Amino acid sequence: MKPFHIDTIRADFPILSTQVHNKPLVYLDNGATTQKPKQVIQAITDYYSNMNSNVHRGVHHLSQISTDAFEVTRRKVQAFIHAAHDYEIIITKGTTESINMVSNCYGKAFVNEGDEIIITAMEHHSNIVPWQMLCEEKKAVLKVIPMLENGELDLDAYHELLSERTKLVTFNYVSNALGTINPVKEMIVEAHRYGAVVLVDAAQAIQHIAIDVQDLDVDFLVFSGHKMYGPTGVGVLYGREDLLNAMPPYQGGGDMIKEVTLEKTTYNELPFKFEAGTPNIEAGICLAHAIDYISEIGLDAIRAHEEELVEYATAELSKIEGMRFIGTAKAKSSVVSFLIDGTHPYDVGVLLDKMGIAVRTGHHCAQPIMDFYGIPGTIRASFALYNSKEDVDALVKGVTRAANMLR
Ligand code: PMP
């Protein structure tokens, strides 16, 4: 484990020493996507310079080394989330595709008329819409765990929603809009008591919190590479072997087959059954380098650093007149969402951008949360391992200036 030196870490991320509108970049939009360390950027260049070829196909040298490297990623992901088997790791395009895979494939095989699916009121749209589509198609019933004012889930309501009719329960580990950390283990135990399977959306957790899928006893877990310092266009679906085996394939095409005749096709074994066609090879291979990067620093050190930033940012921002925090859950990760009386979040975001500060404003692809609070959106600062107290100071100064200009 490397010692946690913020300056050394920042030096790994070339973009952090660039300027925006002639101001040093302060990047606080990590919930949308994280920046990439030079180790990952170098791996991308190396791939195209020395390795480029298709995977799982050719007998030639290049194809073998790219296939080996792609499979190294699968095993790194397996180790990173403590999966029992490497073939339980399906390499996808990202969280959205992983969720759609489960809603389509698990849904096709196991969800019938009258069955119930439970989601929460604090999901990203990508963990709402696929379930609405499935329920419409199958005449199943979508139930929603409501939220409390502080941005936590109403767990009493959850217990009441569960029944023998519940087929699948899904929720995010960490809310992208509020930063709430949900009590996933407890929620999984409850769902399993009724025989329901559980999908956890770990898109905002995988880069902040150490995850052990066997300890959690989770059935499906999904996340994206680009939010964990890796490339875009790659993500993961972890699924329990027996469930994956029982599910039909997602797409038909090359790689997912064992044998094709013009009359009939037999499907490949896991994980290839769910990986039709040429994957994003470069991103797949380079995800391993992002995992190495995180592992060398260690998620415990990363989490401690980010908790300190959230605490500091909350304390400093609360000194601004008219500050209203949205989401004040006891357990929070790396996100501070807020509004300032008398200003529109969008206007604040535009002014911050002019100062070189990147935040996200709006509904953060979680419109039901904004409806719950009766607000148009929030200003969201989301932190990563390379953010510093100086970044927070710049944010506080920038927000104070923006508020003074707008009021
Ligand atoms: N779920 C959550 C909680 C997210 O934050 C995001 C990305 N903002 C997604 C799902 C979707 O991820 P992607 O766009 O990488 O598929």
Automatic annotation (TrEMBL):
Domain of life: Bacteria
UniProt keyword terms in alphabetical order: Aminotransferase, Pyridoxal phosphate, Transferase
Swiss-Prot/TrEMBL cofactor(s): pyridoxal 5'-phosphate
Domain Aminotransferase class V stretches: 26-395
Enzyme Commission number(s): 2.8.1.7
Name of one Pfam family that matches: Aminotran_5
Protein name: Cysteine desulfurase
